[in-house]
Write a structure and sequence with these properties.
Layout: H1 9-25, H2 30-37, H3 41-48, H4 56-66, H5 70-76
C-alpha cells in the first residue's frame, strides 16, 4: 500500500539551496522569480530557506523556469528514488 510521504527538513533545505543557486545563476531576484511564478516574494523566500515545500505543480514550474532537470533535483536533494533500468 502507498503511504503519503512528506519531505524531511533536510530535503526542504537542500531543495531551497538548489532553487537559490539556480535563481542566482540566472541573475534573477526573488522578486523576479515570484513574478514569473505568480506567487508572493515571501513564499519564494520560505522555499529558499527550507521553511516551505512547494506542491508538485509548483515544483515542476520552478524547475522549468530555472532550467533544472529531475535528475539534478533528485541528486542534489539526496532523494532516495529507485530508478528502473530500461527493458529492451
Amino acid at each position: 500500500m502507498f503511504s503519503r510521504r512528506t519531505p524531511t527538513q533536510k530535503e526542504m533545505e537542500l531543495f531551497g539551496e538548489l532553487i537559490r543557486e539556480a535563481r542566482k545563476g540566472w541573475k534573477l531576484t526573488q522578486e523576479d522569480l515570484a513574478e514569473l511564478m505568480g506567487c508572493s516574494l515571501r513564499w519564494i523566500s520560505r522555499i529558499e530557506r527550507g521553511k516551505s515545500s512547494p506542491n508538485w505543480r509548483d515544483t515542476i514550474c520552478l524547475m522549468e523556469i530555472l532550467g533544472l532537470s529531475l535528475e539534478e533535483v533528485v541528486k542534489k536533494v539526496e532523494l532516495n528514488v529507485p530508478v528502473l533500468t530500461r527493458r529492451e
